[in-house]
Design goal:
The protein has one domain. The protein is α/β, with parallel strands linked by helices and 147 residues long. A five-stranded mixed beta sheet has the order 1-2-3-7-6, covered by helices on one side. A two-stranded antiparallel ribbon has the order 4-5. The protein contains five helices and seven strands; from the N terminus they run H-E-E-H-H-E-E-E-E-E-H-H. Strand 1 and strand 2 form a beta hairpin. Bound molecules: zinc ion.
């Protein structure tokens, strides 16, 4: 019995807190106090993936979905320290740090996700946002994805 108890304790310590939302594309969200919903996130992601697919072969659905599965989003209630002082979002590998602006569509979620997709799929770093077509998508949103 002591062994079982120890095993349970070790398992719970190694797993950490579970995400508040896991989107349909398996992105994990830690919301803190934000009121984002799974539906809002799913709508935003579906729209982005569809729009990127329309651009051509650079961001194929299967590649985008594979990259998204590794992604974790941390949501904050105020601007976060970044290379430029304070920012509304920051991408660090698979970890996206995003300030809550009311819902995912008007926050920097898909903007920071786009930085990760560029890096993971194409090995491309575009901090100056030169790949204009993808930034129009990443900073856009379907109208129904925000309350
Ligand atoms: Zn950016």
């Amino acid at each position: 019995m002591k062994t079982l108890t120890l095993l349970v304790v070790l398992l719970s310590l190694s797993c950490g807190p579970s995400a508040d939302i896991v989107s349909k594309h398996n992105v994990s969200f830690y919301l803190n106090e934000a009121n984002w919903t799974k539906l809002q996130v799913d709508l935003q992601e579906d729209w982005m993936i569809e729009q990127l697919g329309n651009l051509g072969v650079a961001y194929r659905r299967e590649d985008v979905e594979k990259s998204m599965r590794k992604t974790v989003v941390f949501v904050y209630d105020s601007p976060i320290p970044c290379y430029a002082g304070l920012c509304n979002g920051m991408q660090n590998g698979t970890k996206l740090h995003v300030v809550d602006r009311g819902c995912p569509a008007v926050s920097a979620y898909t903007h920071e996700l786009m930085h990760w997709l560029q890096e993971d799929i194409r090995g491309y770093v575009d901090y100056d946002h030169k790949e204009i077509g993808v930034w129009q998508i990443a900073d856009g949103a379907p109208s129904r994805s925000c309350p």
